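note to self: the first set is below, dont mix up w the second
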Amino acid sequence: MLKNNLIISTILSLILLLSGCAAKEVAPKPENFLTLADLTGRVTLKEDSPGARVIRIKAKAFIKRNDIRAAKAKAMETASAQAVDAMVRELLPDEDYNNNFADIEEYLSKNIQKYIVSSEVNDEKKIFGGKYYGLDTAHKVNRQKVLVALQKDLKLINNSASTLVPVITAKKNIDLSKSGFTFSDLEEALMNQIQTDLNQRGLRAMDFRNAVTSVQTDEKVKKQFAKISKEQFMAIVSGSAADKALLNTQLQNAEEFYTTGLSLLKLMAKVVVEVNIFAVSGNIKGDMALSMNVTAKNVSTGRGGAFANSVINVARRGGPSVIPSAMITGLVKDAYGAMEEEFIPQILKEMSTISIGGKRLIAYELVLKDFSSAEVRKLRTKLKQSGSDDFRYISYDNSVPTIVTIIVRHAGNVEDLGDKIMEIFDSSGINAKEPIVAPDLTDLVFVRLPDEE
């Protein structure tokens, strides 16, 4: 009996011990070597305006003298700079960005918070053996302020570089009096939808009126084209003869205007998109339908040519309580949704062929743990020798014991960069752990493994 009691007592003690351990949350130990890949969190910031982009960034900072607060502030500063850099990459053609990334980084870093609307930390913890503090962050970036900096201060954006000019037309003089709104209302809604979406995709889409204004800094150009109308603009794009383009009734020398007008197009745009509204039927108290034809032409070389064309028909159900602006918004969104299926992808493909600089060079940190100084030097030498249009060695930091960080710029998939480094290790007989790769990671961590005996 005594023996049975002892066994039961032992079992109960083990159960209590295990339940006590389960109740406690075990903190990760420094030797677990957590990386930025282990940081996860949910983003709550919203893109609540056309001029704002929410960009997610993971970043880290070295913890000096056990000052967590300072390390967190430094990591947030790094993340903010990377978020603004991501916005710059969306706005600039590949070639311009790759040739100027150092100047861009230096200029924008002087006042980075000017371009950040708000930021949030989604997750945070000590990483890299407890020597760094890592953050998973999200930043709402002011696209317009970044664009102004690139245009006016850094002078890296020429409005003609790869601009797309959308024009809304209606050759049938549509009467919308019964619909509850005017043609200008529909025109403005369509223009805003097209410009907002394409601008956020990294293209520069502007109304033809703004495009004309953009080339008027040259007095000679301004004198010739200051009063160009939408009809004249489209007549030039159409490629028809001057006497059939209704230009001679507005200008004394129509032929000269038309001939030099092609030069004007090259100054203003690479691609012109014409949205020709055929018909709007019904009214907001009942059903409404919108029919239009969308055509895109590349005008960057010679007379260019049409490369995309779609006929779009959409309809919505109205009602007694529907307001005009809501009906316009619905029709436009439905129409643009149809454009996105086939037409917009063709535009993106065509515009991408205009930029000839390859893929954008993105900054990456190669984090090396437990490598010898000789092995690090060998890797750095190999990286410097492999410099190309798609890869640049930048710098390195060995201030933290057992951890060395090498900064590089790479154009292409992050897994290709990981393979590149692993191949160098393999060729040198160095055993290393495969790095974790993910789309939102700019840190590749390589852990030295013991040599096989």
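second set (the one i keep forgetting abt)
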Amino acid sequence: MKQLFCILAAIFVLFSCNQDKAEKELPSGSIFHLTSQWQDQYNHSYQLDALRGKALVVVMIYTSCKATCPLLVADMKKIEKQIKPSYLHKTSLVLVTIDPEKDTPEHLAGFAKTSGMDAPHWVFLRSDEAATQEFANVLSMKYKKISPIDFSHSNIISVFNPDGELILQEEGTGINTEKVAGKVNEAVKGS
């Protein structure tokens, strides 16, 4: 009887180890393969894979923008309202700055607070120019500094599943926020 118990225990351990390994492997197209360092609005430094396990809604903005970024921020807030409240703890609404020189962690924290985006599911990120450009390339997002205080940029909101795979992109301002939130709800429910 002891021998049977030992064999069953060994099979269980072996199965658990193989299952853990399969769960840890990232899909080839995951954004979590990016190894750049980022800072959030709380001045915590980490790599993007720290966000793994949550559905992500991502937009690239800069906080001093007076043209389209306020519209993108409004779209993100509309998306937040359409995500099931019980799913928000499994979701990160991520705003990545394209102006890391001015958008310091302290500035991002102030922007988050004054914009009513200081709940735990809101994540504001900044990095160096190389990492920001690499991330923009992954999103097929283009931006360019056109003056000391202004950027020209694409308006894209992207949704990633909890393994970091792109599952939806919407371009423009005034997007179908219901469609985006629906995709987030599906991703969280399926995880």
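remember for set 2: The domain at 29-189 is CATH 3.40.30.10 (Glutaredoxin).
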